[in-house]
Amino acid sequence: MKIILKKLISSLLLIVLITGVSAQKKEERKAKKQQKYQECLQLIESGEFKFEAEKAYPMGGESIDLTTNYGFLKISKNKSECDLPFFGRAYRMEYGGDGGMNFEGEIFNEKWTRNDKKNKFTYSFDVRDKERFTVILEAFSKESCSLIIRCDSKAHISYSGQIIELEVKDLKEK
After folding, report:
1. List of domains in the chain
2. Digits of tens for pLDDT over the chain (174 positions)?
3. Considering the entire predicted model, what is its pTM?
4. Which residues have a Cβ under 8 Å from the Cβ of 76 and sit 6 or more positions away?
5. How many CB atoms lie within 10 A of CB 125?
């Protein structure tokens, strides 16, 4: 009887210990996730960052890996520059155009939406180059971002990737 009681007590202690450790790990993960979200917020709110695409998601198609054909969206001093590959339907194109999502211009109609409960930040704006582009960037951390680009001449497309700080050479170009 004493042996059974000792085994029962030791089993209960082990269960309590494991539960405590897993709860502690969950809190650590949550704190780390919150820290990554805050770093991402600071970078986006600085207005000086670059989105690097890793995958493209064309409308009605499968995802496309962009490791060999990656692109970027650069934001600096209320201006944006975009050079991303496009996969999908084009409704009209210039003769000899490259067919990508390419634009450069002043940012207008900026909107910032923050949801600290879900650790989600949404930044949207419009750019007018040869046509009007609407850009929506959703960020959960620097490594987990999605970008949606809409324009009149092409079907909308989304990308996933990461945001990074602008390098010194990128800042000098602007």
Report:
1. 39-173 (2.40.128.410)
2. 667 766 666 666 556 556 655 656 777 777 787 788 788 888 888 888 999 999 999 887 788 888 877 789 999 888 999 999 888 777 776 665 667 788 899 999 989 888 888 888 899 999 998 889 999 999 888 888 899 999 888 888 999 998 888 876 554 454
3. 0.77
4. 47, 48, 166, 170, 171, 174
5. 19
